[in-house]
Amino acid sequence: MTITVIRNADVVVAWDAQAAGHVYLYGADVAFEDGKILFVGERYAGTADEVVDGQGRMVMPGLVNIHSHPSSEPLNKGFLDELGSPALYNSSLYEFMPILRPDAEAVPDCVRVAYSELLLSGVTTVADLSVPHPDWLDLAAQSGMRVCLAPMFRSARWHTRNGHVVEYEWDEKAGADAMAQAFEVIARAEAHPSGRLFGMVCPAQIDTCSEELIKESYAEAGRRGLRWQIHAAQSTVEFHEITRRHGVSPIQWLEKLDVLGSTSIVGHAIFLDDYPRNAWHSRRDLDLLAQTGTTVAHCPTVFMRRGIALRDFGRYRRAGVNIGLGTDTYPHNMLEEMRNAAYVARLMAESPRTLSTTDLFEAATVAGARALGRSDIGRLAVDCKADLVLVDLDHPMMQPRRDPVRSLIYAAAERAVDRVYVDGRLVVSGGEVLTLDYPAAARRLHEAQKRTEAAAPRNDWAGRPVTDYSPLTFPEAGQRASGARS
How many Cβ atoms are within 10 Å of 260's Cβ, its own excluded? Predict the structure, then answer.
């Protein structure tokens, strides 16, 4: 086995077990072997096969992303940046996303692009919520990341035939069959020789899954010792649909089904019963999340594009809710997502004190690890996984660097990420991904997006060209000239 030592790092974000928190260590060493951390502290005295100069570097734990959709989201760049259905409370879920989907040929490149962006922004563990696709396990293993595969399944698909009413097409047998397939994928992931793949159970959305599918998936997750995640309280449409069906909020419907708990993650959980625009009569949801130990997967970027926001990160945390972070949308940049989480929370709270950078960093590390049932990631401590990130403190965007984690999150982001190790293996060096061809995959997605745009009118209830609802920032020159003449 090879022992690697990062020697004399300017700063190490180490784990203090007694204080149960991260601390700054200055002029420290980090040693690891066979995918595990051997030493964190001053002057490692053991043998070393490889020595990495830590001067001018900060060593920090790899980030843990608990909610992401790599198989589809990279293709949405340029389509959904400012698009939401005006008659569906500005969500893009129901009218536009179902018709702007990558074809089977494009999916592997979507995954390559998303995984690359995650690695470049310091993510070493990601929960990948995708519909199963043939290349999934191979790409996850090839990436070098620690990937939690969460194959999504559901009993119904949503659609709209007029742009203002969402309808559901139910096929409960298909949902049960898809759940069985999901468990097969998870079993293959858990048995994968890389040792870096694991699984999570994911009934896709609270409004597209039958009561039986939600309850059975949760029970089977418990029998297999797996985590469980569902999208819920993610839109006004969904809140209205669940209250219409069941007379309670989405969170309270999950409570009635007995699926909230310390092994459960709720994707988004924005539209609680006390969310102002809901004007609902109860005020129980936030306490329910806290009391049951349920985690919220917070992904601010995709919602802030539509003028929607969690109210607010600090309020949830003070209530005792475990909050982890995810990159629900493009770019899959965890450091930018952290920055957005901080700014949106402070804006919604109308106070810079609603959360600290300490809170934010914990959400992206140990809180996310807790949500995934892992105590061996998200921290730099002996016997934890050797998942770590080296940040270039000499990068101009890191200057001045009185507080390097703040400089990284609020200014430099991925530009200062120099090296990334997962399981002790170097997967990013010099700011370049070593395991995947990111530039080539990104170029191929450009052609794939043209195919998506050409196919979209056939799937649209109104048969519109994409430019009708998602026009380019500027008209083509010929169109502008023609319009001027008329």
Answer: 21
Sign for the CA dihedral angle at 290, 295, 301, 302 comes to negative
Cβ atoms of 144 and 438 within 8 Å: the answer is no
Q: Which of 50, 11, 57 is nearest to 31 (CA)?
A: 50
Could you tell me if 427 and 119 are in contact, meaning their C-beta atoms sit under 8 angstroms apart? Answer: yes
Those residues whose C-beta lies under 8 Å from the C-beta of residue 288, and which sit 6 or more positions away, are 251, 252, 255, 260, 294
Residues 115-151 pLDDT 10s:
999 999 999 999 999 999 999 999 999 999 999 999 9
Is the preceding omega at residue 400 within 30 degrees of 0, hence cis?
A: yes
Do the Cβ atoms of 364 and 351 come closer than 8 Å? Answer: no
Quote the distance between the C-alpha of residue 377 and its chain's center: 16
With CA atoms as reference, report the closest residue to 371 among 127, 130, 186.
127
Max distance between CA atoms of the chain, in angstroms, equals 80
Q: Return the SS3 of 417.
A: strand
Q: CA 307 to CA 304: how far, in whole Å? A: 5
Q: What is the CATH number of domain 63-386?
A: 3.20.20.140
- Neighbouring CB atoms inside 10 A of 205's CB total 21
Distance in angstroms (rounded) separating the CA atoms of residues 317 and 359: 8
- Residue 480, pLDDT score: 59
Q: Which of 172, 157, 184, 186 is nearest to 214 (CA)?
A: 172
User: Are the C-beta atoms of residues 252 and 273 closer than 8 Å to each other?
Assistant: yes
pLDDT tens readout for residues 331-371: 999 999 999 999 999 999 999 999 999 999 999 999 999 99
As a whole number of Å, the end-to-end CA separation of the chain is 75
- Give the model confidence (pLDDT) of 373-405 as tens digits: 999 999 999 999 999 999 999 999 999 999 999
The closest of 266, 446, 268, 329 to 84, measured between CA atoms, is: 329
